[in-house]
Structure formats: C-alpha cells, structure tokens
Amino acid sequence: AGTQRARAAAQTLLHVPYGDGDREKLDIYFPAGSPKNVPAFVYIHGGYWQCLSKDASGFAAPPLLSRGVAVVAVGYDIAPAGHMDAMVLQVRRSLAFLVKQYSGIRGVYLCGHSAGAHLAAMVLSTDWTEFGVDPGIRGAVLVSGVYDLEPLLHTYVNNALSMSREVAQRNSPMLCVTGAVPVAASCEVLVAVAQHDSPEFRRQSQEYSQALRSAGWSVSLLDLAGVDHFDIIEKLSEETYVLTQVILNMIARA
Q1: How many CB atoms lie within 10 A of CB 59?
Q2: Residue 153 three-state SS
Q3: Is residue 83 annotated as a catalytic residue, yes or no?
Q4: Do β-strands 218-224 and 188-194 pair in parallel, antiparallel, or remain unpaired?
Q5: Is 172 among the catalytic positions?
Q6: 185-243 tens-digit pLDDT
Q7: Which domains does the chain have, with CATH numbers?
Q8: Which one from 118, 197, 205, 209 is the annotated catalytic residue?
C-alpha cells in the first residue's frame, strides 16, 4: 500500500531494465522538478532471498522525495530461480547501470533490509574496476541484516538457495571486509538492528559493525528500541521515524 501511494504521488520510471532477466529491473522515483545532481537512495528488498520484490519496495520514497532525494528500488532473481552468486552480481550490475545511465546522480546511498542488507553489504566489497565505473557510494544503511551465511546452510532457508559451504563463504560480508578498505574513506555505514530481532540477527549486526570498524570504515551501530524485524524497515514511510531522520541527516552531511 505504501508503494502504491508513493507511485501515485511521484514522478516515476518503472521496470527500467538493467539486464535481460525478467527481474533485472529498477523502479526509480524522482523528486519534484527532477533537478540535476540529486542523491539517490537505492533500496534492496529482503525476503530471505526467495520472496518479495521491487514492486513492494517504494514505501520509503515520500519522506526522501520531499527532501530532493531520488529513490531506486532494485529487482533481482530470487530463489530457487536465482542463485546467491547471481544475486550479488545482479545488484552490483544494477548500481553500475544506474550511475552510467543517469549522470545527474551525485552520490549513492545504499539501503537493504534483512537479505537485502546482506546484498548491500556485498556491494561494499565490490572491485568496481571490473564494471568500469565508480558509483560514488557515500553511505550504506544496513537494516537487520545477515552478514555470515554459513549458519544458514543447515536450515530451511537453504532449501531454496541450495548453497554449498564455498558459496556461503565467498558471499559472506564478514569474510569480505578486508578487501573493501579502499572504499571506506568516502562511505559512511550505519548498521541498524531491532530490539526484537532474533539473537542471531543482533549478534551478526554487532560483529559485522565491529569488523568494519576494525578495517577502517566509518561505521555506527544503531539499536532501535520498540521495533521488530519487520516494522524496523516498514516505518521508513514515516518522516518522523528515527531511522528516517538518521538517513536524511546522513545524506545532508554529505
């Protein structure tokens, strides 16, 4: 419902293809007037890599659009059709496409929730020379994310993903932090976790933020009271919500 309201109220480009796959598409929400040199808030949805889509990912747009920030919702192939290596590559390719196609973007701010936070964290470890572009990532907001995939190998989550240990290891942000240091100087990272997230989400958020900090990143850990794994992200539709305000302040500082 929030996404439908955002689409009705904003200037949009929907289902913009960044590749040939059915889900390799972006929804782009532009602020009024579509001025040049706008920052872009790029949202990667969660759903344990096997449900949800970009079509329900525009709910956070209105508060950001009102401050002159474009919002981009990323689609990617979910399991079982999508595999972990491919999902990570798709999200990286989507970002390269975005900044090449829309030269008016000045600064990218990643945001991902749950599985989307995992994918956003993997973007931070990207060697962008392989894509021929510097996307200019200025901030990353990782919300209730998964940063170590190995604990999932023997759970129901992996039934659809069919990850091997090798796939889980090379796609675990916790194991990719050291290679990401060159990006660290220009990117502010916020790791957010809900008071009522499960102990495993909370543990991984704390350990990943510590790993980033040890590797030289500018990182903050925000423990949000009174929210759970779902409303921690759904409340981004509210301008007065603390995480919305933190995001707006991050963009304003840059």
Answers
A1: 21
A2: coil
A3: no
A4: parallel
A5: no
A6: 789 999 999 999 999 999 999 999 999 999 989 999 999 999 999 999 999 999 999 99
A7: 1-253 (3.40.50.1820)
A8: 197
Residues 55, 196, 229, 231: which is the catalytic one?
229
**Entry pTM:** 0.97
Q: How much is the pLDDT for 34? A: 63
Q: Which residue out of 57, 94, 114, 205 is catalytically annotated? A: 114
Residue 157: name the closest of 43, 49, 22, 46 by CA: 49
Mean pLDDT by 10 residues, the chain (254 residues): 91 96 96 83 98 97 95 98 97 97 93 98 94 94 98 97 98 86 79 98 98 93 98 97 98 90
Task: Give the H/E segment covering residue 27.
Answer: strand 25-30
Q: Please say if 66 is a catalytic residue.
A: no
C-alpha distance across the termini of the chain, in Å: 31
Rg (CA), the chain: 17
